[in-house]
Structures are given as C-alpha cells and as structure tokens.
C-alpha cells in the first residue's frame, strides 16, 4: 500500500548530523516524518530489498512504536527478513555486532544517544551499512536528498508483531526474527577479554566496582556480564533498569551528569572503580578512587597496554582519534612505531580505517572508545578492557594513569559547551574566526605562540573522499591547542564546543588541578572568538 506524504515542508531540514537524524519526539510523531526518512533508506539502499535488516534501539520513548512502523514498511518494500532485538532493544555496539555476525545488508538504530528521552525530549534514527558502522557521508547524503524528492511511502496493513518473545514471526512476505542480543554480545566479550582474571579480581573481595547504567540500554548487558558471569557483587550495576525516559535523567556519562557515581568514588569509603555508559551504550566514563580518567587519556592508556589483553595480544596496527581528542594517543603511536590518524568528529570516519586494517583502536574525547571488534564505539567493552587491565597489572586506576603520564607526558584537557545558542550567532562566530585564521600563525598570545591555525579538512586515506569544515584548530608551539566546533547532534539551536588541551612533559608538574592549568587557555579561547560579547554567556553550560 502506498501512502502519500502530504506535507513536504518539515522534511526539508532532515540532513542527518554527526550520527543520524535527531529531533524532538513530537517532530518524529508528525504524520509521515519518520516514514519519509525510512522510505528514503529503502529507496537508496537496493541491497536491502530481498535482504536482511537489523533493527533495534536504546529503548527510549517512541522506540516501540517506531519499530512497528519500520517493520510494516520493511515488509512493503520487499525486505526478506528483519532481525529485531528482544523488546526492541539493541545497544548501538550490539546492533553493529548483529549486522556483522549475521552479515545483514544493514541496520536501523533508533537512538538519540545521550540526549534525554520522553514525550517532550529527543528521538533519533540512524542507518548503519553492512560493515556494521554508521553510514559514510555519501550514503547519508543520498538518503537526505531522497527525503526531499519522494512524495509517498510504502507500508502494509498488519497487526503489531510481538517483539518481546524470541522467535520468528511472519509479516506479509517478510520474516521478523526476535533475537537475544545479550548472549551474542557476551560471547564476543569473552573472546576479547580474560574473564577468568577479572573473575578472580572480584573474588578477591578487595575490589569494588560500581557501574552506572543511567536507566539506559546497557543495564541488562552489564548486569549479565558483570554480576552474573564475572561475579561482581549484586548491586554493582546501579540504575540498571532501562526506562523510556531514563528516569528523567540525562543519560550522558560525564562529570556533570553522572554525579551519583562520582560521589561513590569519592569521600569516606570510595569504591575502587566507577564506570558509566550512555543512552545507547556506546559511551563510557572511567573513574578510579578520587580519580577521573579523561576519555582522551583512556584511549592512550588502552592503546599503550593493549598487548596485555588477549584480544589484542599481537599488538595493534594503528590508532585513530577524532580531531578534537587530545594528542595523548599520538605519543603512544609514535613510541609503538604505528600510525595515528586524526579524523573528523563522528564514528563513521573510523569505518574505512578499521575495515582496511589500518587501525585496531580508536576513540573520541566525548567518552567514546572502541576497536575493530565492531564498527561503533562500545561503552561496556571499554569498561571490560579497563577491568582486564586492572586484573593484570594489579594496580589502581590512578597509578596506571600516573605511570602513563610519566612515560608519555600529560595532556591536560577540558571541553566547554555552550548549548542552545542562537544558530545564526554561532555561524557568524565560526565564520569570523575562519576569516582570521591566515593571520594567526606566529602571533604571540597570552605567552603562547601560534604554530598553525586552520579549518580542519580530512581526506579519507582509503577512499580519498574529502570532508571539509570539520572544526577550527589553533595549535601553539608548546603543544597546546584550542579547537572550536559546532555540534551536529543537538536538537535546539546551536551548541558551540570549545576543546582545550595543554601538554606537560615534566612529571613534577603533572599533578596540578586541570581547571587551574586550563584557565588561561579558556580565557584566550573566549577572547579570540568573543564568546561572551556574541552569545551573552559568561561561562559554559557543561564543562567536561
Ligand atoms: C557528539 C560528540 C561526538 C560523537 C557524537 C555521537 O557529536 O561530540 O564525538 O561522535 O556526539 O555520539 P557533536 O556533533 O554533538 O559534537 V553518540 O554517543 O551521541 O552516538
Ligand atoms: Co551514544
């Protein structure tokens, strides 16, 4: 059955951002809005016709309804089979694994990641290709262009499929198979990590972990692996029950939003290790006793210690980090004699490098770390990697990171986000900075000399595709950097992200307070871009 799309207007702004299309639930609920995007996927991805599709989401509000809509449309478009996570749930890394493991022709992931959920909050949809990773820019562009052309979509009339019971169900000529993604994921983690060593760590009774699932998708995965299989004490996983509105919280694992967990690692009787994941399970935060590991440092530490982990014992082929991520990983790559690639923000840029075997480990400053085991960042994977490392080295988190700094130097790091600012003002701020870039090299500012200043452009070393305007970089001769970028995942106005980094090779100066060390750079970044004059904001909304 063919249904006409009556309004074309709301569809014209559907260009997907950093990771798919993210809008308010109310926008997705408009007649034909979700359908327009989904039909455009089927129209531009012919392999799906007669093929297999993976489907699931982070369980947020509207997940179940969207799944039923997509199933009916898949049946009408001639998809042979859809693999749906039980209850409609697939964490983002698990979805990537399902695509790869069953060699499907692609997958649709329903998530707005770390954005809040609920009837008045955010929803999102993203298409992943057959390698398990987020579609490359040329695919998302094709889908976007198609959303503006089509005037109808295909669907069938059918009852809702019961997605809560495992099994196969017919829907028109299509089969819906409800699968258990948790045991599949457990299997993969078992191949990569030394479960026996981690089990012993918990058995010793001397080591306590808290994992904050933030009422989001990793709850069931984490409870099964950490408590049931690895023997961590019951109650190790907190906020483990997935809720449609994430309990009203902000499922973003960082120092501002995971304060309950932060407190458990501080004070009178702190736990040894704290970790958290986000709405769709692809991010991670790592905490030791009274100690926060920046995601950039985490990437560097994992890379430097990868040979101690069974899945990476033969070494890693290369590392990649997103441009705003600190240069800590570069130092490790240099010492290991391997390449460190600098890519634009967003996991899709790691896909080709992973597929070509050029890198084994990659990460972003935004609490994302992952490897070639899937094509998405993977929150629980990062936590298990750290646990395996702690079990092997028998040292606390802080000790491991301090040792790392002594060896490679410390990259102090902070990110300041100005959220919901006027989109036109944000564009102007970036454009004005762009005009001045050519004049900056050699200029001295606040005791630092500008080494280079550019608008980051990336040429994919595998397919040669070019991505421009990926953020403004100002590098200083002492290794420090200021980076400005506009977010591609926000749903209200614009979000300006300012990323700051300062390098300290001297071990005697590596124990200073990050906010203090970064204050002069924060000031300089604000002055250079006239942030306060333009936005009226005297400070950032979120500092991570
Ligand atoms: C943000 C992060 C980026 C990450 C993206 C998706 O994008 O900065 O590093 O890849 O979210 O993460 P932006 O454009 O808002 O800066 V997730 O966990 O939302 O899939
Ligand atoms: Co996420």
Number of strands: 27
* Mean pLDDT score: 94
- Widest sheet, order of strands: 2-6-5-3-4-9-8
CATH structural class of the largest domain: Alpha Beta
Terminal-residue CA separation: 49 Å
* Molecules bound to protein: alpha-D-glucose-1-phosphate-6-vanadate, cobalt (II) ion
CATH architecture descriptor text of the largest domain: 3-Layer(aba) Sandwich
Radius of gyration, taken over Cα atoms and rounded to an integer in Å: 23 Å
Low-confidence stretches: none
Helical percentage: 25-40%
List the domain count as a whole number.
3
Give the helix tally: 17
Structural class: alpha/beta
What sort of overall outline do the alpha carbons produce when their principal axes are compared? Answer: globular
Largest sheet geometry: 7 strands, mixed
Strand content: 15-25%
Going by CATH, the homologous superfamily of the largest domain would be Alpha-D-Glucose-1,6-Bisphosphate, subunit A, domain 3
**CATH topology term of the largest domain:** Alpha-D-Glucose-1,6-Bisphosphate, Chain A, domain 3
Brief rundown of the structure:
The protein contains 17 helices and 27 strands. It is α/β, with parallel strands linked by helices and 544 residues long.
């Amino acid at each position: 059955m063919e249904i006409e799309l009556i309004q074309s207007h709301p569809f014209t702004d559907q260009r997907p951002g950093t990771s798919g299309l993210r809008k308010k639930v109310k926008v997705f609920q408009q007649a034909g809005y979700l359908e327009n995007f989904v039909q455009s996927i089927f129209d531009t991805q012919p392999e799906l016709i007669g093929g297999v599709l993976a489907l699931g989401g982070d369980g947020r509000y509207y997940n179940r309804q969207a799944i039923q809509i997509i199933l009916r449309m898949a049946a009408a478009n001639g998809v042979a089979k859809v693999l749906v996570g039980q209850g409609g749930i697939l964490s983002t890394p698990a979805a990537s694994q399902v695509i790869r493991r069953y060699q499907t022709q692609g997958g649709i992931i329903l998530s707005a990641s770390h954005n809040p959920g609920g009837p008045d909050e955010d929803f999102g949809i993203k298409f992943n290709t057959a390698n398990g990773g987020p579609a490359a820019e040329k695919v998302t562009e094709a889908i976007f262009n198609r959303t503006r052309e089509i005037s109808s979509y295909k669907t069938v009339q059918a009852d809702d499929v019961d997605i809560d019971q495992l099994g196969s169900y017919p829907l028109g000529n299509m089969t819906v198979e409800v699968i258990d993604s948790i045991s599949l994921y457990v299997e993969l983690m078992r191949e990569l990590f030394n479960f026996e060593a981690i089990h012993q760590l918990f058995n010793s009774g001397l080591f306590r972990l808290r994992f904050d699932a933030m009422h989001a998708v990793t709850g069931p995965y984490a409870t099964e692996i950490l408590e049931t299989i690895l023997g961590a004490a019951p109650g190790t996983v907190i906020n483990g029950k997935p809720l449609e509105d994430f309990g009203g919280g902000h499922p973003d694992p960082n120092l501002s939003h995971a304060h309950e967990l932060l407190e458990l690692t501080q004070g009178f009787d702190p736990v040894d290790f704290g970790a958290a994941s986000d709405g769709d399970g692809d991010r991670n935060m790592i905490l030791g006793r009274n100690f926060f590991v920046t995601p950039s440092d985490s990437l560097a530490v994992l890379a430097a210690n990868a040979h101690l982990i069974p899945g990476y014992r033969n070494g890693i082929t290369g590392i990649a980090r997103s441009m705003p991520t600190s240069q800590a990983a570069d130092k490790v790559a240099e010492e290991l004699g391997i390449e460190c690639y600098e890519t634009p923000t967003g996991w899709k840029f790691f896909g080709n490098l992973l597929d070509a075997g050029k890198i084994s480990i990659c990460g972003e400053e935004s609490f994302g770390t992952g490897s070639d085991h899937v094509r998405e960042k993977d929150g629980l994977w990062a936590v298990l990697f750290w646990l395996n490392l702690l079990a092997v080295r028998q040292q606390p988190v802080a000790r491991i990171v301090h040792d790392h700094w002594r060896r490679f130097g410390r990259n102090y790091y902070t990110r300041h986000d100005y959220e919901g600012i006027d989109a036109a003002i944000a564009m102007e701020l970036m454009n004005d900075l762009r005009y001045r870039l050519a004049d900056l090299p050699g200029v001295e500012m606040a005791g630092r000399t500008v080494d280079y200043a550019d608008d980051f452009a990336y040429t994919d070393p595998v397919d040669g595709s070019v991505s421009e305007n990926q953020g403004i970089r100002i590098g200083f001769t002492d290794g420090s950097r200021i980076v400005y970028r506009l977010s591609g995942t926000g749903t209200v106005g614009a979000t300006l992200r300012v990323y700051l980094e300062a390098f300290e090779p001297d071990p005697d100066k590596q124990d200073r307070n990050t906010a203090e060390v970064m204050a002069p750079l924060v000031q300089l970044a604000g002055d250079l871009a006239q942030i306060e004059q333009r936005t009226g904001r005297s400070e950032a909304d979120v500092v991570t």
